[in-house]
Amino acid sequence: MAYPFPSDEWLQVLVEVLNSDERYAEVAENWEGDMTVVIEPDDGSERQDLPVAVYLDLWHGKCRSARFIDLEKEELPDAAFTLRARIDHIQKLFTGQLDPIQAMMTRRLRVQGNMGYMLRNVPTVLDFVRCCQKVPIKE
Amino acid sequence: MSKSQFHTLTIDLSTGSNSVGIINNDVMQKYLGGSGLGAYLLYPELSPDLDPLSPEAPLAFLTGPLTGTSGPAVARSVICGKSPATGIWAESNIGGFFGTELRKAGVDVLIVRGRSAAPVYLCIQGSQVELRSAAHLWGAADTYQTQVKIKEELGQPAARVACIGLAGEQQIPFALILCDHGRVAGRTGLGAVMGSKNLKAIAVRGRGSIHLDNPSKYAAIRARANRELKDDTVSVSMRDLGTSSSSDLFDYIGLMPKKYFSSGSLDGIDKVSGSEMAETILSGISACHGCVIACGRKVKLKDGIERKGPEYETTIGFGPNLGITDLSFITRMGEICDRYGMDTISLSNTIGLVFKLFEDGLITSKDFSGDEFRWGDHASVEKLVHQTVLREGLGEIIAKGARALGENFDSPNSAMEVKGLEVPYHEPRGASGVGLVYATSPRGACHNQGPYYLVELGQTIEAIGIDFFNRQAGAEKVKNIIRHQNWTSVINALVMCIFANLPPSDTRKLIQYATGYEYTLNDLLLLGERSWNLKRMINHRLSPAGIDDSLPECFKVPLAEGGAAGYVPLIDGMLLAYYEERGWDSIIGMPTTEKMQELGLDSLSEGLSLQ
Q1: Is A30 at the interface with chain B, CB within 8 A?
Q2: Which whole number is the average pLDDT over B304-326?
Q3: Bridge partners of residue B19, in order along the sequence
Q4: Most exposed residue of A100, B18, B26, B172, measured as fewest CB within 10 angstroms of its CB?
């Protein structure tokens, strides 16, 4: 079953995947860092629901909580990492059409936070993306 | 002054005379500057009989049309000639402030010939050019001391000094040229060429302005490009963590060699990275003139003295390459090499070969006063560094480079070199494109012609058709690699830093507003291709027995563990496709007559033949 992106259903399934994936639990065992992903409209988009942000509290191989943030009513949380990308690029990332390192190298995915921590934990970052790719997205 | 003119200053050290000149517009438009222009200017003089350490050997210092303009990462200049390490084309670019100061002094290209009867240093202060005795510095002052003393003597604290150390004076074939806070032209041994000319240093002080064709439009693009560059992911990670920022990533995907390329893993490897440096010894950062990236590191060790921190190549070369994971030790080795003026890549590579041959039993302790050369042994590394510059003990053989050392111990295939230049620290078994770049770079094993490892990580440039391929793909990505080499040749003409990830359209506009020349992106790619082919023609001329594009045997054997485990680049097939795609003949890789005509190089083809 595929889920609309971004949507509550999609986020709920992603949390279930992150909390049940044995490989992620192992690879991300030492990860301590919450994250906000800001999903921006693509060029020429008329989508009224964007931009929108998703907050994920990732801690030692589990997702302790996750929620959408209404950017009109709420400030972005002071998360360890803030990622920003256009929705079309995130969809490509989450469907395996865009390599996550390539996305960062080409500014499609912009990262704020401790680059040293992120680069020290490349396997965790890549495995997080793998888990995201396990949640089918509705075209 | 015509807007597109480049000014040359030529010094004859044998006579002490100098002359000035102008490069004509046609040549500028075809080559722009940097190493491409250097290849054009030096081509007539680079013959197979020319001893690179003879008075006749030319040594050219070239800037680019953007150098010193406060554009995005355009502080660099390049030094060109014939390499004493390889016998073929030599180029090595250098950051800091030296290139900027040259242009402010009205010198876009400096060509040095001849040999002084006694050690001298060259002073350029505006239109005033003089040679001063360096007898008191020769054998007495390291590269940092030399800068300080010359500035004091000139009464010019703001002068910029490019100089050699003891290694250059000793004409060690991997001697470098250093300026400022440890910015170096490290590769191909051009410090030895300076040494052979009894030229200790070049000091420059300029107060002029740098001509721009359209200053207001240039400033607008420059400002925007610098803003974007500052926020680029690579820039941010370089600024936060230095050029070793990607060490962890390189290790994970198999791009980082260990134990002289013989192992895919090393205990404690997480202690060798830009992140580790930032969390332990980092005390500050440094930048070249006007650069928003600021990749340079300052560190403090236990003695509390702030010094240059090692960049990626030094970190891996004196680190995992030798089984070492101690950043403080690596920092000290980098500093010693800088002070002596030795290229850390070539030296650490050659010491790595010593360790490998010792492990294989081809070098024994009884041959060298009981010394042992085991992975991770700090003391033996430090001893060999000093012995090399003094040409003592095993250092006498190390000072000839890895190829000579391998041959000396009857193990020539163990040396990690291409065309005589030692391989840097990007593992082609982790990314095949890196292998093809090593094989075809005009100066031998080089990771920056072009820096295709960045593309292998995902730094695509769609605007000029440079896409992302599987890191272990073969011939199918050859065309992509060629486009990247051609584009890098444009970057080298400018001379822009390879870490500046700019949209090509911005680069094109910067060129236009700086020079008045209007190019399309295809025009620029053609210019880059011309430069690449000209260097290939030079190498054919300098290699009567033929150019050897093969990689070290080691890369044909897969590693058992690590990110590159089980893979070898299929370089033979890639090379065949490369020759065909380049328009070179399929046997020796010579540009065909048609290709030379297409690039406007046919008039330079005299003396070259498809033999």
Answers
A1: no
A2: 98
A3: B10
A4: B26
DSSP H helices, B463-543, are 478-494, 504-515, 521-542
Q: Is A106 on the interface with B (CB under 8 A)?
A: yes
Quote the minimal CA–CA distance from B173 to chain A in Å. Answer: 36
List pLDDT tens digits, range B109-127. Answer: 999 999 999 999 999 998 8
3-state secondary structure B561-573: CCCCCCCCCCHHH
- CA end-to-end span of chain A, whole Å? 12
Nearest of B234, B470, B239, B275 to residue A109 by alpha carbon: B234
Pick the CATH number of B243-422 from 1.10.569.10, 3.30.559.10, 1.10.260.40, 3.20.20.110: 1.10.569.10
pLDDT for the residue numbered B606: 67
Fold of A8-133: Nonspecific Lipid-transfer Protein; Chain A (3.30.1050)
List the single residue in B with minimal CA-CA distance to A97: B468
Task: Determine, for residues A104 and B460 on separate chains, whether the beta-carbon distance falls below 8 Å.
Answer: no
Q: B6-205 in CATH: which number?
A: 3.60.9.10
CA–CA separation, B596 vs B603, rounded Å?
8
Do the Cβ atoms of B439 and B572 come closer than 8 Å?
A: no
> DSSP class of residue A110?
E
**Model confidence at B610: pLDDT above 50:** no
Question: If you average pLDDT over residues B89-118, what whole number do you get?
Answer: 98
Selection from B610, B547, B543 nearest residue B575 by Cα: B547
pLDDT at B190: 98
Domain boundaries of chain B, sorted by first residue? 6-205, 243-422, 432-604
Query: Taking Cα atoms as reference points, which of B190, B28, B174, B228 lies closest to residue B112?
Result: B190
Which H helix or E strand runs over B332?
Answer: helix B327-340
Domain B432-604 sits in CATH at 1.10.599.10
Query: For residue A116, which residues of chain B lie inside 8 Å, CB to CB?
Result: 240-241, 245, 274-275, 278-279
Distance from CA of A127 to the nearest CA of B (A): 13
Please state the domain extents for chain A. 8-133
With a pLDDT cut of 90, the percent of chain B lying above it is: 95
Cα B499 from chain centre: 13
User: Count H helices, E strands: chain A?
Assistant: 6, 5
Distance (Å, rounded) from C-alpha B324 to C-alpha B373?
Answer: 13
pLDDT single digits (tens) B515-549: 999 999 999 999 999 999 999 999 999 999 999 99
Question: Is A99 within 8 Å of B278 when comparing Cβ atoms?
Answer: no
Q: What is the dihedral of CA B33, B34, B38, B40, to 10 degrees?
A: -40
